[in-house]
Amino acid sequence: KNDVLNSVTPRGSISDHHKVVLVTGAAGFVGTHVSLALKRRGDSVVGLDNFNRYYDPKLKRSRQDLLLNEGVYVVEGDINDMELLNRLFDTVRFTHVMHLAAQAGVRYAMKNPSSYIHSNIAGFVSLLEVCKSLNPKPAIVWASSSSVYGLNTKLPFSEEDRTDQPASVYAATKKADEEIAHSYNHIYGLSLTGLRFFTVYGPWGRPDMAYFEFTKNILKGKKITVFQGPGGVSVGRDFTYIDDVVKGCVAALDTAGKSIGREGKRKGLKAPLRVFNIGNTSPESVEKLVGILERLLKKKAMRDVQEMPKNGDVMFTHANISLAARELGYMPTTDLETGLKKFVEWYVDWIQKD
Ligand code: NAD
Description:
alpha/beta, binds nicotinamide-adenine-dinucleotide, about 15% strand
């Protein structure tokens, strides 16, 4: 492993022109896309992932193959393994960290809450502990989540809105990370940027997410469970296409660590500490999502409509992205129909090869 790392980016031989990025959770959905985008534009990228079995490990291994084919090596290990992290940072002078490793999914948190504490809170602290004493310190961009808005019903969600009502343990861990980021920024001067992603979808996506599960079941002629709010109110999400999210991540990396910004100066920060919504500003109902999938798959869905249980899901999400637009130049361009078409094309091809 060390040979591979040395050949990628020996410590001390980095030019100022390209970034050397550690992507945690690189074999995950977002991690794969971000790693490829950075590598393709000429950055040096090393991945880290523990390949946990939360969903089909074969999918993670296929993403790993895709990455390896393009020269991105994914180290297999846990973000809590401080010895491994220290070895990685000793070997390679990372200028940036894109921290995407996490236990995702709101519902699974009811079954296995401790896995969220382990990966999302302890894992984040492990990373920050290693980074705090490096010289120079890498700029860190990490995945927060729209779930931090919790039971807040004031739409659209803006970064300054209340985040003190998490509806799941998952959301609580993402909220905790934002507080932890604040303390590491304050004490150690770490540059930290949190990105609140809104329901990301697309090729190589996560099988536990509704659009993926619906596609699979519609094709197999199996029932899909569609949740509704009280009185038949449709659940809505600000579905955000993966390529748009990747652009947000890259823009966040490119501006990370550069300037404290007006707001930072006002707060008296010594290093940048930022949080942005990365959404689509165009929420759609789950009913509409199913309708588009039926058209694309040329098959009727068998709906099992149920009242939404108290399982950590919220009724509606909608991002206000004006801060990200202003500071990062972030502007999503993919509508749900176009994005789902690309997902379905990928899915059909992938299950045929499987
Ligand atoms: P994912 O599960 O596909 O990717 C996460 C990856 O992290 C997985 O490959 C997993 O094996 C790895 N991982 C988990 N725990 C680890 C640990 N302790 N050590 C090392 N690796 C570990 O999820 P994703 O959809 O790609 O999400 C990426 C990030 O974005 C996560 O932080 C997630 O919480 C956040 N997020 C995602 C969405 C979305 O809609 N996909 C929305 C909001 C936030």
